[in-house]
Q: What sequence folds into this?
């Protein structure tokens, strides 16, 4: 969901398991991905509101 590239995901996993990637760095990666997801979701929600309001106004 947050990392579609399996090769990148495997590298993150290996780096974290080996200690090359620390917990704080892992959290920063996740925060970046979650914020990006939420931004897209909020934009889609706003577009859906416009569509819903237009639909309800017509009926």
A:
């Amino acid at each position: 969901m947050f990392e579609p590239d399996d090769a990148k995901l495997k590298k993150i996993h290996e780096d974290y398991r080996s200690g090359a990637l620390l917990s704080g760095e892992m959290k920063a990666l996740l925060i970046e991905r979650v914020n990006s997801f939420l931004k897209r979701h909020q934009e889609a929600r706003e577009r859906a509101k416009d569509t819903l309001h237009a639909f309800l106004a017509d009926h």
